[in-house]
Each structure stands twice: as C-alpha cells, then as structure tokens.
Amino acid sequence: MIDINKEQIKKIVREVLMEDEKEIKLNLIERIVRVEEGIKRLSEQIKLILETTNKRFDDVNKRFDDVNKRFDRQTWLITAGFAFLSILLTLITIFAK
C-alpha cells in the first residue's frame, strides 16, 4: 500500500495547479503577441490603403485641373472670337455707309 499523507497530496495538487497556471499564462501571452502582430499588420494595411487612396485622389484632382485649363482656353477663344466678330461687324457697318 502507498503511504501518502495529506500534506504530500496538497503539495502535488499545488504543483499541478501551478503548472496549469503557468501554461495558461503562456497561452495568454502567446495570444496577446498574436493579437499585437495582427494589429500591426492591419495598421500597415490601413496605411497602404490610405496612401493608395490619396494617390488616386491626387490623380483625379490633376484630371480636373487639366479639364479646367481646357475650359479656360475654350472660354478665352470664344470670347476672342465674339470680340473679333463684333469688331468686324462694326467695321463693316461703318464702312458700308
């Protein structure tokens, strides 16, 4: 028959519980590290998405600026054309008399 007293049993139970507690703490630390790494990766992906989005907006702004320049040129040409026609009609009217 095995001769084990209460104190030995308590000691064994404490050791087992301490090992389980250490294992739980290690598992929690591993999970925390994985979560932190995941957050870091997500942060990097968000930065990349923001940079890409900003680049696209810059490209769109450039296109709008180009279109705006074209309209400015066309407006100037139309204005110059009407001014030329007005002067021409005025001169024709003056010299037609």
Describe the model.
By secondary structure, the chain is mostly helical. The chain has one helix and no strands. It is rod-shaped and about 140 Å long. The mean pLDDT is 89.
Q: How many strands, which pairing sense, and closed or not: the largest β-sheet? A: none
* Count, helices: 1
Instruction: Work out the radius of gyration.
Output: 42 Å
Average pLDDT: 89
Order of SSEs, N→C? Answer: H
Number of strands: 0
Beta fraction: under 5%
> Overall 3D geometry?
rod-shaped
Helix content: over 70%
Question: From the helix content, strand content and strand pairing, which structural class follows?
Answer: mainly alpha
Low-confidence stretches: none
- What is the terminal separation in angstroms? 143 Å
Quick overview:
It is built from 1 helix and no strands. With 97 residues, the chain is mainly alpha-helical.
Structural features:
rod-shaped, 93% helix, 97 residues, mainly alpha, single chain
Topology of helices and strands:
Elements: H1 6-95
